[in-house]
Design brief:
The protein has about 180 residues and is of the alpha+beta class. The protein has four helices and eleven strands, in the order ββββββαββαββααβ. A hairpin with a 4-residue loop joins β2 and β3 (about 25).
């Protein structure tokens, strides 16, 4: 597929985005284009700190930073209100149109939010009977007055004799149905 260029909306034809995720600027006096070099901010905190950005000049003359992903999505895809553009393969440097998906904020939170990395934990007795279930090792630690690291050590079987000090222990509980108790 050949690379296609389109004007980025809101910039009066000064900036263009390509289907391969590149941004260029048009200089009307000379009729030439210059490619903009994307960069990442090292000091910025938050989820978007690794997003590739470019500096563009708004029609009123103010310079601003914009993520390349948002510029390409606004140019080639219709991003309605309440929806977000995300990378399909998770590689933030790959801003090609084929790698951009549009999803609602709620679905984005479920996929990449705080709870997306949590693993469920079960509390088991010496005989293997399940006593309780928890959303995460932190919750299991709070409910049983332990540190979450102690819960994780038991789940990862880093204790040689795990029932020596407590009448119960903990195991990871996979969503796939693989129960990790003896």
């Amino acid at each position: 597929m050949t690379e296609r260029w389109r004007d980025i909306p809101g910039f009066n034809g000064v900036y263009q985005a390509s289907t391969e995720g590149r941004i260029r600027r048009y200089w009307p006096k000379s009729g030439r284009y210059t490619m903009l070099t994307p960069y990442t901010k090292k000091t910025q905190k938050g989820a978007n700190r690794k997003a590739l950005r470019v500096k563009v000049k708004l029609p009123e003359g103010r310079w601003v930073e914009r993520p390349v992903l948002k510029l390409v999505a606004a140019t080639f895809l219709n991003v309605p209100d309440g929806m977000v553009a995300v990378h399909i393969n998770g590689i933030r440097e790959d801003n090609a149109v084929a790698n951009i998906a549009i999803m609602p904020h709620k679905q984005l939170g479920v996929k990449y939010g705080v709870r997306s990395c949590r693993r469920p934990v079960v509390k088991i007795a010496k005989d293997g009977k399940v006593l309780d279930a928890y959303y995460s090792a932190r919750e299991a630690g709070r409910q049983n007055y332990m540190s979450y690291q102690a819960v994780m050590d038991r789940c990862n079987r880093k204790r040689k004799r795990e029932f020596i000090d407590l009448p119960y222990s903990f195991r990871w509980d996979d969503e796939r149905g693989n129960k990790h108790y003896d």
